[in-house]
Amino acid sequence: MVCMRQGCVLLSKTISFREVLHRKSMESSLRNESANVYVSTKAKSNTRPMRLMLFSSSICTNHCRGTRPIHNQAVYGRSRFYSTQSAEPLTSSAWQIGKYGGNQVLQMVETLKPTVSKPHDVLIKVYAASVNPIDVRTRGGYGAALLNKARRVKPGDEFPLTLGRDCSGVVVDVGKGVKDVAVDDEVWTSVNAVKAGCHAEYVVCGMEELSRKPKNLTHIEAASIPYVAITNWSAAYAVAKFRPQNALGKRALIFGGSGGIGTFGVQLLNAWGANVTVTCSENAFDLMYRLGAHHAVDYKSPNILQELLKHGKYDFILNAATEAVEDLAIKVIKEKAYAKYVTLITPFLNEIDKKGPLLGGLSSSLELFKKSRKFAGAGATFRWAFAQPNGFALKEVAKLAEDGKIKPAIDEVFDYQDLPLAFKKVENGHTRGKVVVNVAGESAKGFERGAPELFQ
Ligand SMILES: NC(=O)c1ccc[n+]([C@@H]2O[C@H](COP(=O)([O-])OP(=O)(O)OC[C@H]3O[C@@H](n4cnc5c(N)ncnc54)[C@H](OP(=O)(O)O)[C@@H]3O)[C@@H](O)[C@H]2O)c1
To answer: Which of 145, 281, 416, 454 has its CA 20 to 30 A from that of 378?
Structure first.
């Protein structure tokens, strides 16, 4: 692990003394020339193998506090015991942040390649990854209070952080408990926000967070899908119980059809047999119809209520736009308890960031209660939804993609070294579909500006 401020090396692992000597020499070649590498043993006499900590130069006291182990990065872990491959320490690059802020905090660093450290871990060579609005917000500190709780670190100790919630790539190592995928398999994943992310050459995820990628998609195409797929799945399938078994002929509405969530959601609900209406800007209508929307309504239209009601009320409404649409939603949802309004725009993490887990949790629960009552008064149900890593959902979506029912909707592809430009694009809003980063240099022909057949 390279400390971003001091360029020091910080490692935590269970290894033998012989390995220490070997790795110490490896580390010497990695570390900043001015940094000294120390070896400290923290071993109980009856513990085999010994727990050793290699740690960095004594000058790195502010940031790393001497021997602090890395919490959010698989460094060497226990690869020797769980991995099915030999785990030689190699370097790889990652985009990391050493503090929260604007785009300037993103830095590409050379760091130790992550390794498998648990029996169910899978190490993936990332070919392409996407940038989602959540990455932009996390870069600025959004959700830090709750995520640090989950990581069990004090504020500030979470750095360096690698962002990026989803990718497509190839398996290069698996833990001994991994069953469904093997080395050389092409996979896609959306990793838990607590872990190191996908804006890197390698990422480690749990076997329950991935599936094989659709065979008919390139890595660039595939990388545009996992995070928006698991979010839509969580909202529709898990929270609203709006599923292939009951969606046929039902009416669904997506507020925010033209973004990453909406361009995937319209295809998923359409594939399940629903009649899908979306709201978006007029210049996105063609795209929405190509993706399978039955009706598109301009969200800036002064007659939006009448236009939304033109074909009747809705069984399922997904809000991927703004809290402001809630008053509209309550007027167009069916007066049935099974009719669900599910919103991805929640105050939950913001409140916890501002007020702490207890007060923030309480105030957002109160908000949830109030809105639930409001929708119950209209005869419907109000719910929040969150992205949840879900290998099962990815497997189902891969089948739909292979059947041609889900297509990647890509607005723009950026080179790996231009990742900050991809963040800027997402931050500026008005994207049509997804923004993808080409990590391994796969040909992005045809995607210089979007998926050709969708963005004519
Ligand atoms: N709760 C969760 O776990 C979770 C997970 C994923 C995403 N989200 C949230 O869901 C939202 C959507 O995510 P995304 O990835 O789709 O974002 P995105 O790709 O940035 O999509 C933005 C799209 O929304 C459209 N839009 C903006 N205001 C609108 C409105 N009032 N009505 C209809 N469309 C509108 C924009 O179109 P124009 O250019 O025409 O304005 C743009 O195409 C974000 O706020 C994100 O943070 C939450």
So the answer is: 281
